[in-house]
């Protein structure tokens, strides 16, 4: 439990977390920008209970199982009006599923880079509208996990009318998007929030994803982007990843010279004391 600052002039009391990196509960007009998220106990970002007007942009995600949940449940009708924009994010290494997983609502997925999910990238249930434009989807080597999309716990006959489309996306390494619905532009008006750029520009569009000024496009923040990621937030592997970074080639230059600086400072201090001490 802690005070969490939401702006330069406002902070509020945050009670015990349910394990999500960021939880949005019954809120509107939310912007999550330039964050680096990994290794959480539950989801990296969850938005539920009628939340809407959400933009998730310029973030770097890695090393996690269930990345992002949008919508409380298939039966929760207030989520039918949910509108979410997911733009210019880099979904990096060791991610499994839910990028996002949608229940109801209108979701615009635009100009993101998806790097080798392990199960699927975009999933949903409860008839969400998903508008995928100008993204790059790189499938894993697993021949059974090439599909970008997944209709979760839903029979084929039930989702054929759902409005899911892929427009201007680049599919790499055998990735494919299973579209559905009528494909009529009117159906996607509420799932359209920003003019998509060409997917050819994905490297440039996502080069500053994650925390600003740290590590470039891959946002190399030590344990956030290295190690095997097998724990997916279990806690045991996090310490191993961190210790590997601090003892390996990723160690910052300033940290590497710190012991030498301390030794030199101690030596100079001893010399000064010897010179200034009165002769016996």
From TrEMBL:
Residues 1-143 form the Pectate lyase domain. GO terms for molecular function: metal ion binding; pectate lyase activity. Keywords: Calcium, Lyase, Metal-binding, Signal. It holds the Pfam family Pectate_lyase_4. Its EC number is 4.2.2.2. Binds 1 Ca(2+) ion. Required for its activity. Residues 225-245 are annotated as: Disordered. It catalyses: Eliminative cleavage of (1->4)-alpha-D-galacturonan to give oligosaccharides with 4-deoxy-alpha-D-galact-4-enuronosyl groups at their non-reducing ends. Pathway: Glycan metabolism; pectin degradation; 2-dehydro-3-deoxy-D-gluconate from pectin: step 2/5. Its cofactor is Ca(2+). It is an enzyme of class 4 (lyase). SMART domains: Amb_all (SM00656). Residues 235-244 have a biased composition (Acidic residues). GO terms for biological process: pectin catabolic process. Belongs to the polysaccharide lyase 1 family. This is Pectate lyase. It comes from Gossypium lobatum.
